[in-house]
Amino acid sequence: MKSITLLCLMLCISLIVYAEFVPQSLMFSSFDEIEILTSYSDSLNTNCTWFNSLSGTHSIHYLELLYDYEDNGVDIYCYYIKYKDETSVEDMIALLESENKVIVAEPNYHFELHNDPLLNDQWALPLISMDQVWNQYSYYGNDILVGVVDTGIDLGLNDPEASFYGQIHPDLEDNLYTDANGHHGFNALAFELPQDPYYVQDEYGHGTHVAGIIAGRKNNTYGISGIAGGNAITNANGCQIYSVKVGGTIEGESFFMSSVIRGIVRAHRDGVRIFNCSFGLGSSSQGAEITQFVNLLNNLSNPQLNDPSLFICSAGNDWAEVSNYPAALPYTMSVAATTIDDSKALYSTYHPSVEICAPGGSGGGVNLPSGILSTTPRDELFYYHVYRGCESEFAYMSGTSMAAPLVTAAVVLTKQAHPTLNLHEIRQRLQGTADDISQANPEIKYIGKLGSGRLNVLKAIETDNPHPTLRLHAVNVDNDTYIPCGAQSLNMNITMRNWWAPSQGSVTGTLFTSDPNITITNNALSFYSLGPNDYELFSATAVINDSSNLPGTASFSIQISYEGINETLYFNVPKRVNISASKISIPNRTAISDLVIDDMNMDGKDEIAFISVDSQNPNYTYVSLVK
User: I need a labelling partner for 443 at 20 to 30 A (CA). Which of 95, 225, 601, 619 fits?
Assistant: First the structure.
């Protein structure tokens, strides 16, 4: 059985999950609008002959229209079905896709998680300048609707014996969406499990934590302050959280792709345009298998729409350079996590699809002050308390799941400050006003993979006019990622990406290094535009010489100037021994591989390893280690 590779570490709370698909159910897109005429226990009679044939043969007993859309003037309908016979999901997909009215069929993935007295403990807020925002402005959320696609929210319904049974978490009660019937969102999981479709109680703990980061009530003499949670002293309204419950029970994880689609569609119909998605669906190589989901988000968030939605998504906790859906989609906002010193959190995914960073905590487990403090269910009958030891009422958690809602809340405040901007213009404003964090993350592997920098809410609000924002996009040395020790006349190519307003003038820079063994032939650089693209790129080339004999790391900085803006960006380039294996002389041996230089025996010193063969008998192969 195929599966999506999704990751949430025990030490980092995030709905980045492993997934397998659910048996006897799947989704498909069709040109036909299928209407149920008669329902039987083991089949359906519809207006489509081809579907009736499949239904009768394979006991298709459930059909649901998830959403529909128009593509180049053609109506397309996305359906979810359940069937009772023993046909495998793979075979059922093949049967459906053999019908000429079916565009694509794919599994229904089942996700399994592996993820104001306290104001002074919220170290992330001053880091993104929220203290200055609150001192200088009166932006608190203003009833802007935010969909939290997650595990629900604490309505006080987990423990019937609790004294607060039926009472919403006090830090969230003023900032929940409530419709005419008293509902606080939509439980999309109810179509998979026997639950009420409006029961959005959080039995897991993750959704309540995310909601508190966005909308915890400020100055209510209780708990924490969310970024867009209103102000109890001035009676300023916060944003309104619309809970889109898509998974999570006290027994464990129950996350379905169909629930995510169903929940987003319903929230959008109810007016939600800002969505926080602290979950992920694994590598983008799986994109062809989640077409229904990808099409939905692309159709809702296309910037060409009059009223586009914005999906703010956690980049993932993969400890590596990978892309995750939905964060890697073109119109979503992918958020990586940083720590208190602006360095990338060890667990955080980094990737060219990342657009911005925000504090997410250092990891290491729940309840650690290096994490992000927020609300949790007040009872002790939720999954993260029972199985992870997470504290009730308020707790520290770490993960890109915690970084994403900081950005979501910043979108809300920036929309309140700039109401004429659409959400994708606000997305660009957040990118263009982020603080550069290259000095804290100078490793060449991070260049161009941590977005435009770390979120700065104050700059996003108070910057009057859009301006260019240049960040390092790529650095290479003679088309490689290292400096050969002792090499001369090396071309160092530096490429910048512009994250905001188009540049109207020249871009110049001065390259510096602190490495005494490196000289820069000409450190004055003039960047030239690489031409039209989805974004502006500027490139310049310097020539460097190295006189060192030993490997190490060379540190560089570049002072750039453009349109009255002066900034210093930082990067490091590793240096490697410039030696060929063929020059290493070992009696009766011939080297047949490139060198690998690393600390092989973990003694703190690099060794050189290569593969060789016996000169007299080539059938004998050796791995040689030179110290």
Answer: 601
| DSSP one-letter code for 183 | -
Distance CA 375, CA 116 (A): 11
Report pLDDT digits (tens) over 68-114: 999 999 999 999 999 999 999 999 999 999 999 999 999 988 654 43
pTM of the model: 0.87
Distance between CA atoms of 421 and 425, rounded to whole angstroms? Answer: 6
Do residues 224 and 171 make contact, with C-beta atoms less than 8 angstroms apart? yes
In the block, which residue shows the tokens 């959080």? Answer: 202
Range 473-504 burial, b when 16+ CB lie within 10 A, else e: bbbbbeeeebbbbbbeebebebbbbbbbbebe
Does residue 381 carry a pLDDT above 50? yes
286 vs 114, 265, 578, CA distance in Å?
19, 22, 40
Any alpha helices (H) in 270-365, and if so which ranges?
Answer: 291-301
pLDDT greater than 70 at residue 601: no
Q: Say if residue 534's pLDDT is above 90.
A: no
- The alpha carbon dihedral of 561, 563, 564, 567 has a sign of negative
Q: Token match 């048996």: residue?
A: 23
Higher pLDDT, 531 or 144: 144
Tell me how many helices (H) and strands (E) the chain has. Answer: 11, 32
Strand partners, 513: 556
* Cβ–Cβ < 8 Å for 382, 370: no
Higher pLDDT, 472 or 586: 472
Q: Pick the residue with more confidence: 4 or 293?
A: 293
Write out pLDDT tens, residues 37-67: 999 999 999 999 999 999 999 999 999 999 9
As given in the structure block, the two tokens for residue 114 are 């592996």
CA distance 255 to 15: 10
Asked if pLDDT for residue 10 goes beyond 50, the answer is no
pLDDT class of 585 with cuts at 50, 70, 90: low
- Encode burial over 401-418: b for 16+ CB neighbours within 10 A, e otherwise: bbbbbbbbbbbbbbbbbe
Six-digit token pair at 398? 């770490």
Alpha-helix residue ranges (DSSP H) falling in 59-163: 89-97, 124-127, 130-136
What gap in Å lies between CA 362 and CA 123, rounded to an integer? 12
Rg (CA), the chain: 27
Six-digit token pair at 604?
């703190």
Q: How far apart are the first and last CA of the chain?
A: 46
Q: 3-class SS at 190?
A: helix
